[in-house]
Amino acid sequence: MPSRDSIIGAVNNLSIQYNFAAASVAIQIMSDGGYPEPTWAKMALLGTVFAGAVCGMVFLGMIGDLIGRRAGMLLTLGLTVTGSLGAAVLPWGTDSSIYSVLSACRFVLGVGVGGMYPLSAAKVAESDTDADPTKIGWSFFYQAPGSMLPYVVGWILSAEAFNDTSTSIKFRIILGLGCIPAGVVFLNELFTKPKQSAGDVASQASRTPRRAMSLWGRINSHPEYLKQLIGTGGTWFLYDISYYGTAIFQPQILQSIFNTDTLSYWQNLTVSSMTLPGTVVAIMLLKPKGSRWLNIYGFWLIAVAYASLAVCFHVSAEGLKWPKFIVFCCCTFALSCGPNVGTYVLPATLYPFHVRTTFHGLSAGSGKLGAVVGTFIYNPIQESAGIAAVLWVQTAISIVAALLSIYFIDKECYDKADDEVSESTPLSPNSESVNSYDGKLKSSSCL
Predict the structure, then answer these.
(1) Is the pTM of this model over 0.85?
(2) Strand, helix or coil at 321?
(3) What is residue 440's predicted lDDT score, i.e. its pLDDT?
(4) Which of 25, 36, 95, 409 shows its CA 20 to 30 Å from the CA of 363?
(5) What CA–CA distance (Å, rounded) separates 259 from 253?
(6) Can you spell out the DSSP letters for 202-242?
(7) pLDDT tens-digit map of 149-190
(8) CA dihedral 228, 234, 236, 242 (to 10 degrees)
């Protein structure tokens, strides 16, 4: 039976990806239904949510280490509910004002869902003392159905039964549904008697002057963290360039493959559904092979998939529709089968609990910076050199990420020192277990 923390982590991950993907479907419905998207809004809507996510990952990750996982979780959930509800009910008036308010609400939403990354991963990792990375992987799995749900909702709303439903109601339904999973977890967390985890105990210890050092102070006192941050953050940065460069422009890529201007929900759902088996395979390989192995070989697989699709476009720019579609499905499978899980799990198992959410947040924030790069660079490349050029860039990025995984992520171990800090043994700020953790970490083979 999954623990309460594992269920919360799963619901949070579903909420994360639903809220990221919902805007693409909502904007398509708005554009087709009398709410033309201003030129400035095409990039602003994507840029604001990713900028908010980076802020949330970094600053709420630090808050999770400084004041505790529960307090940080309540804050990030509250921001998520506020942002998604605001995006659904506040945009009114002219097209420009609608998209301006929507952009502002998406920024708040981004901060909330960004904070979910480090806090949810740490909450699952610290739910018990066996440090099983598979539990973190299974909680992450629910990002896959989360990314598909907006297309399911859009498909349902496009049915004949909803022909008389206004566009205004349709796009508000899609955006507003994002508050439900976060709201449920928020209420559960608020009214459930708090249970102190190892991470919360460590955050109490970190409030003493010796522990409440700046981020740079932590890095200076532990240079091994910086090397690992280059590995965990750098690979996440490169992965998200590829992932979001594909996911955000998935409808346009499919329209290019099938030479049509119409959004096809079944095509998008078919491609998105490849994330499910890909993520399951990655999770099954997580315990026997490890996150580092998933990163290395997963990036090689992604490079092969992108190169294959690029070759298809070189052979025939407008033909080979079904071979291209099949290979594109394989690209989505490859993107999910390896680094998609590995980049999320690594920081939660590699860093000690008193800096875990900080460094997980920095790693995830690096990933979202990559998402911004992927969002903004591929459209100009496609317009100037075609989709094949975009795919070759994706191939090169994946090769660099594989090399980064080899040279900057040491062979991982799962914190044995964490086993000494259990919920049944409360720690004071001067506890020997907390204060001796750094020395044990440095002597381990992990760092």
Answers:
(1) no
(2) helix
(3) 40
(4) 25
(5) 10
(6) HHHHTTSTTT---HHHHHHH-HHHHHHHHHHHHHHHHHHHH
(7) 998 999 899 888 888 889 899 999 999 999 999 999 999 988
(8) -160
Phi, psi of 446 (to 5 degrees): -80, -35
Q: What is the DSSP letter of 353?
A: T
Judged by DSSP in three states, 297 sits in helix
Distance separating alpha carbons of residues 76 and 67, to the nearest angstrom: 13
Lookup: tokens for 241:
């360039």
Mind giving me the DSSP string for 392-424? HHHHHHHHHHHHHHHHHSPPP---SGGGG--TT
Selection from 321, 339, 140, 79 nearest residue 235 by Cα: 339
DSSP 444: S
**CA separation for the pair 1, 441 (Å, rounded):** 32
129: DSSP letter: S
| CB distance 412 to 136 below 8 Å | no
- Give the length of the chain: 447
Which stretch of DSSP H or E encloses residue 142? none
